[in-house]
Amino acid sequence: MIIHLNKSIDNDKAEALGRQYEAICMHDGARYVLITSSKVKELDANLKSLTEASFISDTDIQLASRQYNPDTRTIDLGVVTLGGQTANTIVITGPCSVESEEQIEQAATLCIELGVKVLRAGAYKPRTSPYTFQGLGLDGLKLLDKMRTKHGLKIITEVRDSTHIDEVIEYADIIQIGAKAMYDQGILRKCGKANKPVLIKRGFGSTLQEFVQSAEFVLSSGNPDVMLCERGIRTFETRTRFTLDLCGVAWLREHTNLPVILDPSHAMGYAYGVSDLARACVAMGVDGLLIETHPNPKAAKSDAEQQLNFEQFRALHKSLGVVAGAVGRHIV
């Protein structure tokens, strides 16, 4: 249950009520809010005089549910707004990893050329093998910051674990919580206290319920600016890297109030299928795409097979506008 307390109730009183009713206490910008387990179906009689409104939930998807807030959240990224009534589909691109200043400069230049406003690249890489490239770490973050300052781009980069979360929060404009970190409550709660948008990628073995409940950790910690990213789930199929769950995307758009971003690069795992998948994603009317590009994919230090070269991305970007227009959206 979500309980909107009267606006006259101060912080000390709200926190005391939270402890009394074993509820999370947060401020939504207008009032203090208590959030209990969804198993609570009736407002306590002693709370009625202190309550402005209450909302019963079917599951512990509560703050993210359209039962609570029927409108898609609007998220201002500074250079562009997505969600809400904007009809914008944002394209985010860049390499899997920051590898050198020359490489990330080329990626940033491509963004400027095509009007892409958000540059992606990983500085801390959660690799499956300990013997592969693990990222440039803080040096990589500083290179991304240099591109931001030089070109006016916004930066999205990934948190791998709790050891460097403060660094990522400092340097990123959008904090990406990767599929392997989706269950890390320390990261989720820390991002909930950050005053920056957060993009959460779905774990490849996670249900939709588990996926959105990870977002609830961030939302209930006080950060309303959360985006969900579908990047493929593990199925019985082995010929592609993962399976992009467009059925799940339809469910997320119907039942949650969070903007939905799709990552066809990680889902497909091979560059030859990324462009067609990206066009299919845009046709669904989603809020954004996350696509990996590299000046020379064959030489990439991570995810070489799935990254588009610049010519492939230019052709894809041109076609996305046509698809978006057909479904009443705009590529930004």
Secondary-structure class: alpha/beta
CATH architecture of the largest domain: Alpha-Beta Barrel
If you compute it from the alpha carbons, what radius of gyration comes out, rounded to the nearest whole angstrom?
20 Å
Number of domains: 2
According to CATH, the homologous superfamily of the largest domain is Aldolase class I
CATH topology name of the largest domain, in short, is TIM Barrel
Write a compact overview of the structure shown.
The chain is of the alpha/beta class. It contains ten helices and 15 strands. Helix 2 runs parallel beside helix 3, helix 5 crosses helix 6 and helix 9 packs parallel to helix 10.
Describe this structure in words.
The protein is α/β, with parallel strands linked by helices. It folds into two domains: about 1-55; about 75-330, TIM Barrel, CATH 3.20.20. Helices cover about 35% and strands about 20% of the residues. The protein has ten helices and 15 strands. The strands form three sheets. The chain has an eight-stranded parallel barrel, surrounded by seven helices. A four-stranded antiparallel sheet has the order 2-3-1-4, with helices on one face. Strand 2 (about 25) and strand 3 (about 30-35) form a beta hairpin. Helix 2 (about 100-115) packs parallel to helix 3 (about 140-150), helix 5 packs across helix 6 (about 210-220) and helix 9 (about 270-285) runs parallel beside helix 10 (about 310-325). It starts with a strand and ends with a strand. The model has no long low-confidence stretch (mean pLDDT about 95).
